[in-house]
Design goal:
By secondary structure, the chain is α+β, with helices and mostly antiparallel strands. The protein has helices spanning about 10-20, 35-40, 45-55, 75-80, 85-95, 110-115, 140, 155-160, 180-185, 220-230, 250-265; strands at about 30-35, 60-65, 120-125, 130-135, 165-170, 190-200, 205-215, 235-240, 245-250. Helix 1 packs across helix 3, helix 3 (about 45-55) crosses helix 6 and helix 9 (about 180-185) packs across helix 11 (about 250-265).
Amino acid sequence: MSTVTQPLLLGGERATSQLSELGVRRGGVLLVHASMRSVGAGPGSTAAALGRVLGPEGTLVVPAFTPENSDTSRSYLDRVRGLSTEARAAVRAAMPAFDPSVTPAPTMGALAEAVRRAPGALRSTHPQTSFAALGPAAGKLLAGHRQDCHLGERSPLARLYEADAQVLMLGTGFDSCTAFHLAEYRRPAPPRRLYRCVVASENGGGSWWEYEDITLDDSDFAALGADFVRARADAVGVGRVGAARSHVFSLRTAVDFAVEWLTDHRADG
């Protein structure tokens, strides 16, 4: 695949050209992780550039995760570490209940929020790991996201795998590569744990819900990504978009590689 080495400002046809040279397919399905600080452009202009390169038949997908409404999430545990029992209870009581139509996803970055809020965007309904999408394939990709399946076979990740989607890491590292989580589900007997979160109820309040799913662990994703790029250099487009060093690759190829890598490298496999 092509490698782009010259940094260019993100804007207009130049950005579309950069993304196309990197390997983004016109008319395809694209899952994007983006760092606007690295790109050096605003989320609106970045989303517009992505829309131009994908064209009217393409579909843009972003993670719209919401760890803010869970008392088992890493962000909550970090926030309450060292607090008294009373203070922890107050933080938990103030958590906003998840409503897919309005709940923001601030930790996912400005581009994800721009896509989520765009006219015509759809969002899957998982209260922790939803996805948002724009384009003709959005409904099919996001449908049927079971609430006891974060990122497995009953999630949009599996539908993206079936659609032969691409992944664009726009100025982000492989430690944030959501696609690798699907590989965790496809390992033999992955470990499981309990999760809790608060979701909006019909009376306008919130109710707590507990469910079991596999133990999600991204602690080795940076190493996994580095090995993936080395082993499958022929399948990874590498270059700059705006000011950001970026990668584009087949989600299916990455997941298949990750299944073998995680099985070999994790002691709990």
